[in-house]
Design goal:
With 128 residues, this protein is mostly helical. 72% of the residues lie in helices and 0% in strands. It has helices at 2-10, 21-45, 48-67, 76-95, 100-117. Helix 2 (21-45) packs antiparallel against helix 3 (48-67) and helix 4 (76-95) runs antiparallel to helix 5.
């Protein structure tokens, strides 16, 4: 009984990573080099509240680009197309007069459908 419980509890731990330390360092430095200037410029141009809204999706995009660069989510069309399409949908629905909750939910659902249709799925693009 104790052996089964121990086995079950161990099943929650992830498998060991086979990623080299060189890859870790490249990812950390790359994300830092992207996010730091983005935050600095965002604070100067847009101010704190707007910058705080774009930090999470931009940081998530940087993580995907530097940590999983061979992923379909990290390809140029997915990153650029996904972000531009999701922003266009979000801004359009934000300005159309719907309540903020209805606009946000509709924007996320419509963005997912469009990103699948146009084959430019990039998960962080729907976070902003």
């Amino acid at each position: 009984m104790q052996e089964r419980l121990s086995h079950w509890l161990r099943s929650f731990f992830p498998a060991p990573q086979s990623v080299s330390h060189k890859h870790w360092i490249r990812a950390v430095i790359g994300v830092g080099l992207v996010v730091l200037p983005m935050v600095a410029v965002g604070l100067l141009v847009f101010g704190g509240p707007v910058t705080l809204h774009i930090v999470a999706p931009a940081g998530a995009s940087a993580v995907i680009l530097f940590s999983a660069s061979s992923s379909p989510f990290a390809q140029p069309w997915s990153v650029i197309g996904g972000n531009l399409i999701a922003v266009a949908i979000g801004v359009t629905l934000g300005l159309c007069g719907l309540t903020p909750v209805a606009a946000a939910v509709t924007a996320v659902c419509l963005a997912i459908a469009c990103l699948f249709l146009l084959r430019c799925m990039h998960p962080p693009s729907r976070a902003g």
